[in-house]
Amino acid sequence: MKHKLIVSLIFCISFVALFLIFRPLQYFRSERDPLVHGGRNSVYAAFPPAKKDTLDAVKRWISRNAIPLQTVSAGKGFKDLQPLKELIGSAHLVALGEATHGSGEFFRLKHRILEFLVNEMGFTVFGIEASMPEAFYINDYVLTGKGDPEKVLAGFYNWVWNTEEVLDMIKWMRNYNADPLHVKKVKFYGFDMQSASLAVKLVFQDLRKIDPVKADILEKPLAILANPFTAADFVNLPKKRKEEAEKAINIILRFFEENEPEFLNHESESEWDKMHQLAVVIAQHIESKMNAAGFINLDPSVRDKAMAGNIHWILDHEGAGTKMVIWAHNLHVATTTIMGSDLRKMYGNDMFVFGFAFNRGSFQASELPVGYNQYLLFPSERGVHPFAVSPYRSETNVSLDWMLAEAGLKYAAINLHALPKEGPVSSWFEKGQMTRNIGSAYRNSDSTRLIKMSFTQSYDAIFFIEAITASHLNSSGQRSPAPIMAGMVNTDFEEGIQGKIPVGWLVPDQAAAFDYSVTTSENNPYEGKLCAVISRQPEIHYGELYGSLSQQIDATPYRGRKIRLRAAIRTEVSGPGNQAYLWLRVTEKSFGPAALCFYENMADNPVTDSKWKVYDIVGTVAPEADVIGFGLALVGDGKAWIDAVSVKIAN
After folding, report:
1. pLDDT digits (tens, 9 = 90+) for 424-442
2. CATH 3.40.1660.10 domain span(s) along the chain
């Protein structure tokens, strides 16, 4: 009897132990297993009856009212898209969101919707959340066929749009316009204002036609923005310097307006309007930097208002009756956020907004931390690569994304105006539910990146894709990892091979798209047999960027000490805007400009000497610093050689 009691006790203890072990595993499976969530046979066992009844009602309504789509790919006909005509109606502005910045299916579906709207509903203008000045190069390509489409796409600087999917859409636009039967051509615009260098360059070129003296006077306060290497430093300028730049651009804007007739003697009204708008973009950019905060180095509320204003300008510029499609993230087009709200106030029911949602899958993102000034050439330690997320449902809640999958949808549109006016289904959508909204940067510890949204207040309709896959980056869109090394390597460049990228040095993936070559060189080294050279030939370039080579090393051995970066440099440059810069940067491993401990880039003393000269930068490594970065940058055309690089503790 005693033996049986002991056996029973052991059994009970074992059962409890197994329950405690496997219950968390079961919970983990219920959160992440696509066979459990997103399938048609899943159940709501964890929910009380009242909530389960609501969820069942929502599921039934979605199943009965969803507009199924046969494919997300363009060129497959429009039969399944015909119901969208009734949804969109007479709206002249259609906004297409996206729940990630790196999903191929979202990009392909937006291409397909653009194709439909152009062919079936008379839309002729496309705009994207990308730099306005640089987008004019793409517009030239789609209208005339001039230029290299992949290079002009790389001219946006940002890897997000530099994908095969977006390139395919641009090529489709070109093919559509090349057909003589298509009398009304499709135009391409950007409506963002994050980059100012090209705008400054073009505005001063235009200003010099009318008043070269005024151009020379006003150029100095804006010179830092005209230079793509120093432009990122503007945010850290003293308030007085920023105000001087703000005053200069306001003077230019007034000059354009007051002297419009004289400008029209040199250019068309359309060209004047465009140049005036580029001056507006510069003013927007400066305003966004006046009290900037956040990882993108600008005030996001200023940016959103500016993008809404730029879309308004595009429609006005194109004339009455123009129909436009815009492409941006969900959190820009949603009418509960600043850009979408401003556009709704401007256009009311003449705008129709599609949010995008997905249940599971993969997407491209830059792995956090992204480092200082990620939108130029300072990359993430782990680069841009695919991430994956599973369907979301907790034991107490579900997401909209999961519910759409529960309804058995693969690709579908949901018309939110068709919702019941009252009742549990209407209330469920109205009060707000969780949904994923992922930007260009991500880390696995961010979990699902869910936010709560009222869909009926944010969108007119939703496009849903059950499973997404990562977008396909073009070669110039790649952002390779930027490893933090234990110490410097190949600082004399003797390990290299003539004509090849220097061993151990980081060269941006997009350098070739901007016509920069970074190689090991045998041409008259400072010492030894080899050095390194950055070069670019004078020709047509798309966008304003710089060539670079750099290293990142662990800051731990240098913490709390002064260090000296030393390098020998010579150049072969001539003319304004062509020069080289040695730079030293000390950062923490955290998010954005707040991570910057020390930065010196010789902005006021660029290198233009043709003979070898040794340059020093001395800086302090903060006790909390993690990374020391250093390198050479070439702005414009010409060549810059570097040799004999060292980072040592300064005496």
Report:
1. 999 999 988 999 999 998 8
2. 59-189+303-315+322-472
Task: Indicate the burial class of 47 (C-beta count within 10 angstroms; 0-12, 13-18, 19 or more).
Answer: middle
273-278's contacts with Cβ under 8 Å and 24+ in sequence apart are 273/317, 274/136, 274/317, 275/202, 275/203, 275/206, 277/132, 277/310, 277/313, 277/317, 278/132, 278/133, 278/199, 278/202, 278/203
Sequence ranges of the chain with CATH classification 2.60.120.260:
483-649
- Give the per-residue SS3 of 337-383: CHHHHHHHHHHHHHEEEEEEEEEEEEEEEEECCCCCCCCCCCCCCCC
Does the pLDDT of residue 502 top 60, yes or no?
Answer: yes
**Are the C-beta atoms of 598 and 584 separated by less than 8 Å?**
yes
One-letter identity of residue 417:
H
CA distances from 571 to 318, 497, 611, 613 (A): 45, 21, 7, 10
Question: Which CATH entry fits the domain spanning 483-649: 2.50.20.20, 3.40.50.10490, 3.20.20.80, 2.60.120.260?
Answer: 2.60.120.260
Q: What are the residues whose beta carbons fall under 8 Å from the beta carbon of 221, sequence distance 6 or more?
A: 241, 244, 245, 247, 248
What is the third-level CATH fold of 59-189+303-315+322-472?
Answer: EreA/ChaN-like  fold (3.40.1660)
> Using one digit for the tens of pLDDT, what is the confidence trace for 273-311?
999 999 999 999 999 999 875 445 788 999 999 999 999
Rounded Cα distance, 214 and 256, in Å = 12
- What is the full DSSP assignment across 85-120? HHHHTT-SEEEE--S-SSBHHHHHHHHHHHHHHHHH
- Fold for the domain defined by 197-295: de novo design (two linked rop proteins) (1.20.1440)
Q: Please tell me the total number of residues recorded for the chain in this structure.
A: 651
d(CA 520, CA 503): 9
Residues of the chain with CATH 1.20.1440: 197-295
Output the CA–CA distances (angstroms, integers) from residue 134 to 128, 261, 516, 651, in the order listed. Answer: 12, 27, 18, 47
Bond into 149 cis (ω within 30): no
